[in-house]
Amino acid sequence: MTAHQNGTISIEVPDFILNCFVRSPSWKFWLSLPRSLLFLLAMGANSILLLTIWLEVSLHEPMYYLLSILSLLDIVVCLTVIPKVLTIFWFDLKSISFYACFLQMYIMNWFFAMESCTFMVMAYDRYVAICHPLRYPSIITDQFVAKAAIFILARNSIITMPIPILSSQLHYCGINVIDNCICANMAVSRLSCNDVTISRIYQFVGGWTLLGSDLILIFVSYTLILRAVLRLKAEGAVAKALSTCGSHFILILFFSTILLVFVLTHVVKKKVSSDVPVLLNVLHHVIFSALNPIVYGVRTQEIKQGIKKLLKKVC
Questions:
Q1: This prediction's pTM
Q2: Which end of the chain is more exposed for a tag (fewer CB within 10 A), N or C?
Q3: Tens digits of per-residue pLDDT, 91-132?
Q4: What are 257-272's pLDDT values in tens digits?
């Protein structure tokens, strides 16, 4: 409890209430089943992919190490967000502690930024493999992957850390009900009694600097790949390369587009239902974690063979 100079008293918020889909309660029921299945698919597919790469010696190569990083990020994001959302859907356990809320906020921002950066490194890997195949073994090495992992970890950790710090330093003195299923920065900071301009500006600038720069480099990489692929004269080479890189690029574009749509729905929130951004947030945290191991891993012939060997050992 805090006393102000004007004599008023405000109560410090000890925890938050995640009040999602209150205007559309039926959505909880219809979302719980597919979300649970997507969660199981994401956890299962990424775990199998990690285990396959770890056990299969032939997959101990830089490209598959990058896939392992992506799978690990997907698993952490799922475990950070989905179990809490499901407890809200199934048991109506909406309360989340003050510190747990901002920890969730940090992990979500940090790991999504790392995922975007990993996509960028993987796009560069494909660029070198297709445009400079003879130099690939000397450029994409184990040391390259180690340096890339350190860069991914450090860059995104440093830049995203101020987001939850700025939000947690705000004064929350009244309403503690978050109109979301997760502790999204914009939804939480809106409850503050302070001016949140600095927090929002930093999130906007930092977020779009990270995601924007990654997307530009990814686009440049795949543009150069497309130009090189169209010059290939070997029969079937163009179709194979376009099939692989095309699916990668479409997934990355979808990843970025849904974030843009999410932001735009917040900007024009008066013209759309307030449940729409919440729904996009809910889906964004699980759908890509389920798709990534399928698009990047299972469609790769070497991964398929590794999974078959793993299943034979288990059975």
A1: 0.87
A2: C
A3: 888 899 989 999 999 999 999 899 999 999 999 998 998 889
A4: 666 666 666 565 556 6
Q: How far is the first Cα of the chain from the last one, in angstroms, to the nearest whole number?
A: 61
Going along the chain from its start, the domains and CATH numbers come out as: 14-314 (1.20.1070.10)
Q: How far apart are CA 275 and CA 181, in angstroms?
A: 10
CA–CA dist 238, 228 (Å, integer): 9
Q: Are 99 and 197 in contact (CB under 8 A)?
A: no
Closest to 254 measured CA to CA, from 280, 220, 293: 280
> CB-based burial of residue 14 (10 Å sphere; 0-12 exposed, 13-18 middle, 19+ buried)?
exposed
8 Å CB contact between 170 and 189: yes
Specify which of 25-29, 105-109, 168-172, 260-264 reaches the highest per-range mean pLDDT. 105-109
Query: Is residue 96 helix, strand or coil?
Result: strand
- The answer to whether residues 165 and 179 touch, using CB atoms and an 8 Å cutoff, is no
Distance CA 248, CA 239 (A): 14
Residue 2 and residue 10 in contact, taking contact as beta carbons nearer than 8 Å: yes
CA nearest neighbour of 85 among 24, 23, 42, 39: 39
Between the alpha carbon of residue 237 and those of residues 230, 234, 278, the distances in Å are: 9, 5, 43
CB of 286 within 8 A of CB of 82?
yes
Enclosing H/E stretch for 17: strand 15-18
Give the SS3 label for residue 232: coil
CB distance 45 to 263 below 8 Å: no
CB atoms within 10 A of CB 6: 5
Q: How far apart are CA 298 and CA 294, in angstroms?
A: 5
Q: pLDDT tens, 196-219?
A: 888 888 988 887 788 888 989 998
Number of other CB atoms surrounding residue 223 within 10 Å: 12
- Rounded CA separation 192/173 (Å): 7
